[in-house]
Amino acid sequence: MENLNFRERVWSFMPIEEEIDVSHQVILYIEGLNLSFDGFKALNDLNLYVNDGELRCLIGANGAGKTTLMDVITGKTQCDSGSVYFGQTHNLLTKDEAEIAQLGIGRKFQKPTVFEALSVFDNLELSLKANKSVLSTLFAKLTPTQTERIYQVLTTIGLKNDCFMLAGALSHGQKQWLEIGMLLVSDPRLLLIDEPVAGMTAEETERTAELLTSLAGERTVIVVEHDMEFVRSIARTVTVLHQGSVLAEGTIDEIQNNQDVIDVYLGEGE
Amino acid sequence: MSQLSKLFSRKANGVGPILPFIVILLVATTASILGNLLFDPSSIFHVSTYTITLLGKYLCYAMLALAVDIVWGYCGILSLGHGAFFALGGYAMGMYLMRQIGDRGVYGNPELPDFMVFLDWQSLPWYWQGMDNFGVAMLIVALVPGTLAYIFGSLAFRSRVTGVYLSIMTQALTYALLLAFFRNEMGFGGNNGLTDFKEILGFRLQADSTRIALLAVTSIALAIALIVSHLVLKSRLGKVVIAIRDTEARARFLGYRTDKFKVWLFVFSAVIAAIAGALYVPQVGIINPGEFSPLNSIEIVVWVAIGGRGTLVGAIIGALIVNYAKTKFTILLPEVWLFALGGMFVLVTLFLPKGLTGLMSQLHQKYLKKTVTETDEKTVGSRV
């Protein structure tokens, strides 16, 4: 009789929430990824491993495959071949965007994308980690803990005074922050952040750098950025993409002294 | 049930913004009914039965506009085929009313409606079975359009069809149904549709009292539809729906299955449209394939645009004003009406992007700006 209580699964159609298995310290395994658009190889046998709790920067020229890589990880784009695993057990290639998001992978777009017709508060409310089916959304109610969490994040992103303002009325930099806040409030394990400081003032950039650095450790953060100054200020490990595959990986100093990188990327401007 | 009551109690203050409108709606209905009953035709307060029926018809249109506003105004799904759900609901009601005629038809056949006798049919088709029962008929009113909306929505939204392509598909849907219902073999009276109704639930349709009761029922149904829609759209689901309208990709990356939200909102809207159709038919006394006409569906969109989309009440006001204008114009200057409608649409689109309700809040803000900001601060303070 007692065994009944130990059944992990009552109905096979009700998936039990599986923990993300990071026993090998790696949270994201990307292996042999290929993707071509009309013959153009956007991703070319790309291999990338990201450790749990790491803050990783992805750099590379336009068309190097940075955004495409994010699209594949988040389920927006199907790849031709390869594998993407989140932890050791979750095969991301078999899941759609909503499922991947519910696993705890948050994404910030290149262009700030917030719900302009909703207030800052509502934007965060929708981003909360919760049951996101149609019916439970209809009857959803904010719990005190959730409200508390929203105010915490509002303080972190510095929008507490504007929390009932429509998101559409925010400045560009504030929208960037709100979008980062939307990621934070959902408690993701892995954050994919595409050009977080585009259009930000120097001061805002600095605060963003601080925020991202403070997130690492508890969460894993992957940042795509062009601004080398910014990369230098946050990154411990930098991965350089070139023509759809990894060209080099290392600390920022190693990267800047790497001859291959100088040839194809940093040297480009000369 | 407890969840439902929770929804209502939690949002008890949330009905606030639409409450004045509901009061006006119910008071106006009561006043016109009393005007019909208490005053004799010579009095200026008298409301003729013709007007009563006309009002009932307008309110059905208002409900239809409400349905379109739910999907278009809040979710950005521009449906140019909502007339189809309205007509399907109307046909289901028409079938019930046909069966109530019994042997009083021209051919006096107690079992078969006149058009079936005329086509030399021997027995009632399977889909007419049970339609003489009011309960079954009302179930069909909601079920058939709801199912159609579910199937159509699932196919369209899952394959991520949006924008103009979706609008064209909805237009094709209603056009296909128009052609289908024109065929005699469909068993819905073909070109002539269903008409010559006698009674509903045993009450004579021509009787003044029945017409008054129908207006009252329509008015209450509209009020309920408005309240329920308001509550749904004020819930977190409503916010998700607006989020989908603004940036669907973002909503998806937050973990919402946006296609499911769109499908269920579409079904909800289709059922409201169908109920409006079912209330419409006994009041106008006929339903024919013309109701499926793509033009009708486009006209509904014009009502909503004129009233102001994304406000619910705006859609209702738009439908009432345009249809009142239509009645007046088509009597005074029938040939000018379509130009007037087109002109109104152009003017509203150019100068009042938020419709008439948008104009009201613009004026409100302009002249009462100070009070508005003060109350805003108050609400912010109370929520913090």
Characterise this structure.
The complex is a heterodimer of chains A (270) and B (384). Chain A has helices spanning 66-73, 97-103, 120-127, 134-138, 144-156, 172-185, 202-215, 228-234, 252-257, 259-264; strands at 26-37, 40-51, 55-59, 81-86, 90-91, 105-108, 190-194, 220-224, 237-242, 245-250. With 270 residues, chain A is an alpha/beta fold. Chain A has a domain at 54-75 and 104-269: Rossmann fold, CATH 3.40.50. In chain A, strands 6-7-8-3-9-10 form a 6-stranded mixed sheet, with helices on both faces. In chain A, strands 2-1-4-5 form a 4-stranded antiparallel sheet, with helices on one face. The mean pLDDT of chain A is 87. Chain B is mainly alpha-helical and 384 residues long. Chain B has one domain (16-353). In chain B, the strands form 2 sheets. Chain B has a two-stranded antiparallel sheet. A two-stranded antiparallel ribbon of chain B has the order 2-3. In chain B, helix 9 packs across helix 11 (258-284) and helix 12 (294-307) packs across helix 13. Chain B starts with a helix and ends with a helix. The model of chain B is unreliable at 1-13 and 371-384 (pLDDT under 50).
Secondary structure topology:
The complex is a heterodimer of chains A (270) and B (384).
Chain A: E1 26-37, E2 40-51, E3 55-59, H1 66-73, E4 81-86, E5 90-91, H2 97-103, E6 105-108, H3 120-127, H4 134-138, H5 144-156, H6 172-185, E7 190-194, H7 202-215, E8 220-224, H8 228-234, E9 237-242, E10 245-250, H9 252-257, H10 259-264
Parallel strand pairs in A: 3-8, 3-9, 6-7, 7-8
Antiparallel strand pairs in A: 1-2, 1-4, 4-5, 9-10
Helix pairs in contact in A: 3-6, 5-6
Chain B: H1 2-10, H2 19-38, H3 49-75, H4 82-101, H5 114-118, H6 134-158, H7 163-182, E1 194-195, E2 199-200, E3 203-204, H8 208-234, H9 236-246, H10 248-253, H11 258-284, E4 286-287, H12 294-307, H13 313-332, H14 337-351, H15 355-367, H16 369-383
Antiparallel strand pairs in B: 1-4, 2-3
